[in-house]
Write a structure and sequence with these properties.
Among the domains are: about 85-245 and about 265-290 and about 320-390, Alpha-Beta Barrel (TIM Barrel), CATH 3.20.20.70; about 395-465. About 50% of the residues lie in helices and about 10% in strands. It has 20 helices and 9 strands. It has helices spanning about 10, 15-25, 30-40, 50-60, 60-80, 120-130, 150-160, 180-190, 205-210, 220-225, 225-230, 250-265, 295-310, 325-330, 370-380, 390, 395-405, 410-425, 430-445, 450-465; strands at about 85-95, 135-140, 170-175, 195, 240, 275, 315, 335-340, 380-385. Strands 1, 2, 3, 4, 5, 6, 7, 8 and 9 form a 9-stranded parallel β-sheet that branches. The chain starts with 8 loop residues before the first helix and ends in an 8-residue tail after the last helix. Bound molecules: S-adenosylmethionine (SAM). S-adenosylmethionine binds next to loops. S-adenosylmethionine (SAM) binds near residues 198, 243 and 277.
Length: about 475
């Protein structure tokens, strides 16, 4: 029985409801009147239900799809401005007891190099990341109760926050580790994490079972209810995602939105972020063996429809995607991207020998952070290294309020400029610096409140003098 308020995975992600939704969408995919009314509702910027959004996803009428793209672009502009938040993943360990058939970290893979960073090695990685200019990390680890226990993750977070190399600092650590207990989520909260991210991989329970044949992750219900436990433990910001390519994308899209509706119904606040990873080639993984790969076109459509369906949720895209694909979806609603990522354990401080790789998947965008930052600016975006919200306690519904009250330009915009200025001063090449300084000069004029503009100018001047870490 479908019930978004239920705490049971199979009730808030009801298979029957998804199937009914897909039938309804298929029947109405050419129903212009209904499609127009859904687009009109989306224009109110309060989001769409999974059923409404599913109709738009099924619709193949080019003009209507274009309307959705235009709206996604507009919502992106109005809610997030032209800022793009930057982050990098940090892989701590690839030891794993699970049997996920799409992931090279699966237990039976005997030829991948297994590595677990020591605290000293983490320090070297963090220094390398700080030296690129990163301020925000996403921690990644395989699931292994004895090799990667929660104590190891907590100690690693403490190490990461403690390292202050030159002007560098990691100011926000998001965590992407396997589903765990309320007690452990409380510990992560106390360690000062930003978002707890967990990808569902697939919402289709039967497929989930086949794709996760062994290990703790094979428990669909425990995995699907993890965000609820994290929120119960006091973590306000949680991130969702599916691994596109495993199951039919229309099914996943409905499931993803139902999950967001569930969080909103139970906790009064939806997911902080949605990630849109696509399955990639990896050691012992051939993506062509999975039947449900999606084209770049469909991928862009999914991004645009997520944007208009959950306008207040940040959207994340990783270096799994190429420069070209990233260019396209940045305009359609993506608000966070990774740059200069390594998906190997220990890849930042030293590159790995080719015959000893610990990588999780192939990276498509291999540019340096300086190159990514310059490219973003050339494309009209402001790369932001801001971490202010969570450090100022603006998490969960308080962040959503900021968004809903249109205060982004008085708060996030100056924060983006200040943190970009730090990057330009400390890490950028001459060319990037030149473009960046021009951009800051122009963008500062967009701050609506004169007082904020004045404070922002003052902060920028102080950064020139060598002072760091201002925030609104
Ligand atoms: N072990 C944790 C878990 O099970 O959720 C941490 C996540 S893992 C390090 C990060 C994510 O990488 C997974 O959730 C999965 O969606 C994704 N992933 C795994 N194999 C992949 C592949 N071949 N291509 C792209 N993404 C992959």
């Amino acid at each position: 029985m479908y019930n978004p308020k239920s705490m049971k995975a199979t009730e808030f992600i009801s298979h029957e409801e998804i199937q009914d939704t897909l039938d309804y969408a298929e029947k109405n995919k050419e129903n212009i009147e209904l499609i127009d009314s859904i687009i009109a509702k989306a224009k109110l910027r309060k989001g769409l239900t999974h059923r409404e959004a599913a109709v738009l996803l099924a619709c193949e009428i080019p003009e209507k799809i274009q309307e959705c793209y235009d709206l996604a672009q507009q919502i992106k502009k109005d809610f997030y401005g032209n800022r793009i938040v930057m982050f990098a993943p940090l892989y701590l360990s690839n030891y794993c007891v699970n049997g996920c058939v799409y992931c090279p970290y699966h237990m039976k893979n005997k030829h991948i190099a297994r590595k677990k960073l020591t605290q000293e090695e983490i320090k070297a990685e963090v220094i390398a990341l700080q030296d690129m200019g990163h301020k925000r990390l996403a921690l990644e680890a395989g699931e292994h109760p004895t090799i990667n226990p929660i104590e190891y993750i907590l100690e690693s977070i403490e190490t990461i926050y403690s390292i202050k190399h030159k002007n560098g600092a990691i100011r926000r650590v998001n965590v992407n580790i396997a589903a765990t207990t309320v007690e452990n989520y409380k510990k992560l909260k106390d360690a000062g994490i930003g978002t707890y991210i967990l990808f569902q991989e697939t919402y289709h329970k039967e497929s989930y079972k086949a794709l996760h044949p062994t290990g703790p992750k094979s428990d669909y219900d425990y995995h699907t209810e993890a965000h609820d436990r994290a929120m119960e433990a006091g973590i306000d910001d949680v991130g969702l995602g599916v691994l596109f390519g495993l199951e039919l994308y229309k099914y996943e899209f409905a499931g993803l939105l139902m999950h967001a509706e569930h969080l909103e119904a139970v906790f009064g606040v939806g997911p902080h972020t949605i990630s849109v990873p696509r399955l990639k080639r990896a050691d012992d993984i051939d993506p062509d063996q999975f039947d449900n790969g999606i084209s770049d076109e469909i991928f862009a459509k999914l991004c645009a429809l997520i944007r208009i369906s959950v306008p207040y949720t940040g959207m994340i895209i990783s270096t799994r995607e190429s420069k070209e694909v990233r260019e396209k979806v940045l305009r359609l609603g993506v608000s966070q991207i990774s740059g200069a990522s390594k998906t190997s354990v220990g890849g930042y401080a030293e590159s790995e020998p080719e015959d000893e790789t610990s990588e999780q998947f192939d990276v498509s965008d291999k540019r340096t952070l300086d190159e990514v930052v310059r490219w973003l600016m050339e494309e009209g975006f402001i790369p932001s290294f801001c971490t202010a919200c969570y450090r100022e306690g603006r998490t969960g519904d308080r962040f959503m309020e900021l968004c809903k009250n249109g205060q982004i330009l008085n708060c996030c915009h100056p924060n983006a400029l200040i943190t970009l200025k730090e990057f330009l001063m400390d890490y950028a090449s001459e060319e990037t610096k030149k473009i960046g300084e021009e951009l800051i000069k122009a963008e500062i004029e967009k701050i609506p409140k004169d007082k904020v503009k004045e404070i922002c100018r003052d902060h920028l001047a102080k950064i020139e003098e060598g002072i760091r870490d201002f925030r609104f």
